[in-house]
């Protein structure tokens, strides 16, 4: 989703902005732009539809300065185009503004204040920058005009603004959309994600909702909603910049798939001590143990991880779990149990759909845990407890290692909780099981060519495909189908194997690929029956099967593991199938069309 960068006090402003925007490419975008200025008032605005490489090519050698702002835009209001790209400019060309978020009342503000202004774009953002000019024209200082605009707009925003007449300060505001200020020696930067600026600084000030800031090259002043100055202690981002690169891999997604065995082992070290001692905050387990139901709230892949986690927690800890789509739950609240405990699963920790639920549940006083890959992300800061995924930065839009990490962390939590509640199933030798899974994933990624061949046989040419399974294999099928459709654009559906015959089987024709996942001995025979049904109607079937249930014609065989943990393993060949199908069909694996990594609008 939109990404913001800004810098003040450096001579290499243009390069800092372009490098920063490249680091934010992973968030998803369809146009980009920069505005660079210097004390001499020699401003340059460059915007391009398409990739940062095109923006870079459009930036001439004269585009130099000591202050600048930049933006990657993921279109919401108005098509992707040069006009709609940010920075947006006020009518007299004095104010330049970039924005991440959605302004809900822009039409109302437009008709109330700006009916005489000719707009150059279709964006909601332009209203904000035109309002600043309007208030300055009516006699306000730039700071007051900026603040008045911030007070008037309703919605989500991270704003960064430069005044061409005074290019020695950056005007910053935040509500709901992420924004950080990075601190340098003789310079400062602003960014949506610390990844964008790690080459310049590891010290950041976080901004909270409702706060504004004025940033000069030597100073950062942060103000609360009442515009009183607030103190902020900077925090240190541990991440090494090298971790944010692709290394020798052609795509981040492949690197991230390969990293999964290491992530699993890291999580075991991180959260499981010897002799089943756990390294979670004891108050967390205490509070979870008091819950009569755990509600897992999430979106996208994290929602699928929640479905797999439900089965694990219910089996091992014997606590009922409800898994909820964040975008639905917050506005259609079901009747909650008496003592709910909320778990927010979110790779980025920034998803707006999940956050609106968190804010509501917090207001209702319920205990909240966020499980996220991003330390200090919004959902992590606002929860009572945070458990980190320690998966390293996930840059590819299609989530892979975050899914396996989420299910793994939930399984470790389930065991800690089960132990506290003294359930029989908490005796599962989880350390051993996760070890087998890590080794099995390693074997799969070491033999990728096999999966590449199946992708070519089954998926390279098709327009649609099905994954089927039962129980945990159904949960894995949902995630497997999502992986496939989001990057290869094959219309793919994950289906409960037994349900296909109740309608959807009408879509099976000669050559339709149906990929079955079978790891459960209780239902294996039934799923085999469903395979026969689709084969009888012409389907090409590919079978991912655990070795104890394998038959001679099955293609992808996995070692036998405790069935409840199966999705952590079975999802991996599906991730690789999606990856190779996408390469074979000639698409960009890491940046699929229309998608954003961190979705900060509802
Ligand atoms: C976006 C991403 C998905 C992700 C979902 C939830 O839609 O494209 O890959 O699963 O957001 O993100 P989260 O960061 O909350 O896990």
Automatic annotation (TrEMBL):
Residues 2-218 form the Glutamine amidotransferase type-2 domain. It catalyses: D-fructose 6-phosphate + L-glutamine = D-glucosamine 6-phosphate + L-glutamate. The keyword Cytoplasm applies. It is an enzyme of class 2 (transferase). Its EC number is 2.6.1.16. Residues 284-423, 455-592 form the SIS domain. It comes from the Bacteria. Pfam families: GATase_6, SIS. NCBIfam families: glmS, PRK00331.1. Catalyzes the first step in hexosamine metabolism, converting fructose-6P into glucosamine-6P using glutamine as a nitrogen source. This is Glutamine--fructose-6-phosphate aminotransferase [isomerizing]. It comes from Xylocopilactobacillus apis.
């Amino acid at each position: 989703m939109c990404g913001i960068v800004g810098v003040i006090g450096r001579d290499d402003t243009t390069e800092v902005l372009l490098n920063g925007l490249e680091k934010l490419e992973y968030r998803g975008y369809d146009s980009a732009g920069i505005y660079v200025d210097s004390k001499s008032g020699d401003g340059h605005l460059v915007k391009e539809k398409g990739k940062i490489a095109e923006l870079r090519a459009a930036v001439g050698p004269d585009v130099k300065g000591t202050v600048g702002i930049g933006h990657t835009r993921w279109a919401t209001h108005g098509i992707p185009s040069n006009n709609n790209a940010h920075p947006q400019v006020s009518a007299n060309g004095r104010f330049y503004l970039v924005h991440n978020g959605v302004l809900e009342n822009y039409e109302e503000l437009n008709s109330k204040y700006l009916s005489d202004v000719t707009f150059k774009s279709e964006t909601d953002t332009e209203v904000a920058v035109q309002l600043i000019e309007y208030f300055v024209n009516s006699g306000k200082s730039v700071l007051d005009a900026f603040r008045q605009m911030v007070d008037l707009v309703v919605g989500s925003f991270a704003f960064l603004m430069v005044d061409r007449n005074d290019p020695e300060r950056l005007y910053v505001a935040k509500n709901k959309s992420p924004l950080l200020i990075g601190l340098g020696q003789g310079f400062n930067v602003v960014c949506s994600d610390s990844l964008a600026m790690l080459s310049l600084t590891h010290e950041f000030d976080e901004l909270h909702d409702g706060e504004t800031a004025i940033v000069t090259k030597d100073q950062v002043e942060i103000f609360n909603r009442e515009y009183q100055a607030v103190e902020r202690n900077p925090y240190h981002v541990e991440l090494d910049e090298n971790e944010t690169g692709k290394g020798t891999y052609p795509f981040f997604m492949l690197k991230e798939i390969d990293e999964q065995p290491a992530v699993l082992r890291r999580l075991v070290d991180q959260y499981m001590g010897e002799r089943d001692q756990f390294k979670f905050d004891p108050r967390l387990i205490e509070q979870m143990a008091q819950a009569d139901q755990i509600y897992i709230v999430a979106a996208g892949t994290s929602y699928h991880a929640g479905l797999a986690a439900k089965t694990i927690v219910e089996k091992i800890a014997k606590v009922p779990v409800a898994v909820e789509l964040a975008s639905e739950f917050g506005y259609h609240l079901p009747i909650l149990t008496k003592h709910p405990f909320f778990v927010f699963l979110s790779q980025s920790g920034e998803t707006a759909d999940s956050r609106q639920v968190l804010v509501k549940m917090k207001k209702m006083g319920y205990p909240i845990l966020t499980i996220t890959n991003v330390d200090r992300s919004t959902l992590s800061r606002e929860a009572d407890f945070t458990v980190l995924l320690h998966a390293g930065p996930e840059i590819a839009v299609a989530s892979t290692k975050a899914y396996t990490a989420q299910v793994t962390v939930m399984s470790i939590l389930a065991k800690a909780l089960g132990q506290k509640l003294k359930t029989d199933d908490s005796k599962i030798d989880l350390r051993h099981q996760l070890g087998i899974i890590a080794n099995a994933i390693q074997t799969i990624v070491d033999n990728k060519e096999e999966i590449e061949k199946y992708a070519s046989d089954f998926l390279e040419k098709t327009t649609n495909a099905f994954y089927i399974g039962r129980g945990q294999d159904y949960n894995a099928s949902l995630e497997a189908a999502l992986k496939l459709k989001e990057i290869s654009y094959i219309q793919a559906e994950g289906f409960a194997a037994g349900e296909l015959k109740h309608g959807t089987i009408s879509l099976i024709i000669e050559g339709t690929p149906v990929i079955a996942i079978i790891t459960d001995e209780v239902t294996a025979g039934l799923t085999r029956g469903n395979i026969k049904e689709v084969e009888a109607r012409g389907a090409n079937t590919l079978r991912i099967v655990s070795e104890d249930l394998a038959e001679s014609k099955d293609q992808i065989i996995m070692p036998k593991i405790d069935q409840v943990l199966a999705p952590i393993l079975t999802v991996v060949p599906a991730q690789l199938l999606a990856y190779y199908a996408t390469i074979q069909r000639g698409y960009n694996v890491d940046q699929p069309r229309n998608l954003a990594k961190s979705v900060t609008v509802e």
